[in-house]
Amino acid sequence: MAFWLLADLLILLASAAESVAGQPAASCQARCGDIDIPYPFGIGPNCSRGKGFEIACNPQNDSGEMVPTLAAANGTIHVQSLLVAPIPEVKVMLPVAYQCYYSNNSITDSFYGEVDLNNKGVYRISDSRNMFVVIGCNTLSYTQNGNSSGKGPYAGLYYTGCVSYCNDSSSARDSMCAGVGCCHVDISPGLSDNIVSFGPWPRGFQVDFSPCDYSFLVDKKEYEFRSADLKMDLNRTMPVWLDWAIRDSVTCPPLGVQEKKPAGYACMSDNSECVNSTNGPGYYCKCKQGYDGNPYVDKDQGCKDINECDVSNKKKYPCYGVCNNIPGDYECHCRVGYQWSGEGPKKQECSSKFPLAARLSLGTYAPQHFFKKYMK
Fold it and tell me: Where is the signal peptide (predicted)?
């Protein structure tokens, strides 16, 4: 019995060491439900790069389906996708904030959509992919982000919001979100939290067709206003993109240091490179040009050479001649008897070395001197 306990302990220690070295242990779970879990993310502390990258995998209450969530975040934030390339992004579902009213203007129900991703953690709310939306009639709502720590007159570091109104039940129009029943604004970079506030505004007359105020973050491409949303489901969630980065250091280490792969450096593949984060401090890793894969792992699972000459890659890597794959790139040469001009055979068709008159006569007569002159 003692022997087997010791064997199990050694396996666990080996798994943990393997993960820290930039290679997730073979025993690590690679999927949760229908979502891939690529390293540096992982289910369990010994399968991820660290606490911020841990993913919880638990059954959903109503269906029993296994659902991935961000283990380090407050509340339950469902994960839709985890991307390491070409840029580091995580798609999650965040709740809609709301405040509902009686006709006498008193509040019946409310939820302010608080999200805290920890400003010392790996995630930031993507300013390039998301917007802040407000829905309602005679509605003022804004989001407050960050803690000013007593510097200045405001509690938060950033505020943004907008106002929407309605004259009557027919004012709001589908697909229109410019201030009537719906409005939207861009958000700032660097945000790791969100809490919504609703401004005071007399309600009374519109509670039958607009009983609540709503506001939420959402992917710019995945929400289009519908007038029916004035009576939105209070349990609704919206798709939101998060940027992530390695935040152990503020920027990429110097190039010479990167090549030595110092302790803690995340870009483990020999064919990877470091890129400074544009949303918050830190850096992320990507495969060098001509390579594809996971830059955060080494050995056979890291960045691999792309075979640009493969038929499946023809549109992305065109060659109007003979293709030859080389490490990190590909060569393209014109076929025998043809030559290139202008931008070369990667960009345009090769032209024949033979004059037109010679090509017309090839079917009946091809003197030897033509071949000697033009087939070089």
Answer: 1-16
Residue 118 CA neighbour count, 13 Å, CB half: 14
Q: Where are the domains of the chain?
A: 9-83, 90-244, 249-305, 314-374
Indicate the pTM of the whole model. Answer: 0.82
Query: Can you tell me the distance from the alpha carbon of 180 to that of 136, in angstroms, rounded to the nearest whole number?
Result: 8
Residue pLDDT, tens place only, 91-117: 999 999 999 998 888 899 999 988 888
Q: Which residues contact 147 (CB under 8 A, 6 or more apart)?
A: 155, 156, 157
Judge residue 96's burial from the number of C-beta atoms within 10 Å of its C-beta, 0-12 exposed, 13-18 middle, 19 or more buried: buried
**For residues 79 and 71, what is the distance between their CA atoms, to the nearest angstrom?**
10
Measured in whole angstroms, the distance separating CA 173 from the mean position of its chain's CA atoms is 31
Cα–Cα distance measured from residue 360 to residue 376, given in angstroms and rounded to the nearest whole number: 20
Quick check: 97 and 115 in contact, CB under 8 A? no
In one-letter notation, the amino acid at residue 169 is: S
Phi/psi for 283 (5° steps) reads -150, 165
Q: What are phi and psi of 195, to 5 degrees?
A: -145, 135
* Beta carbons of 240 and 92 less than 8 angstroms apart: yes
Please answer whether residues 54 and 43 qualify as being in contact, where contact means their C-beta atoms are separated by less than 8 angstroms: yes
Q: How far apart are CA 221 and CA 195, in angstroms?
A: 22
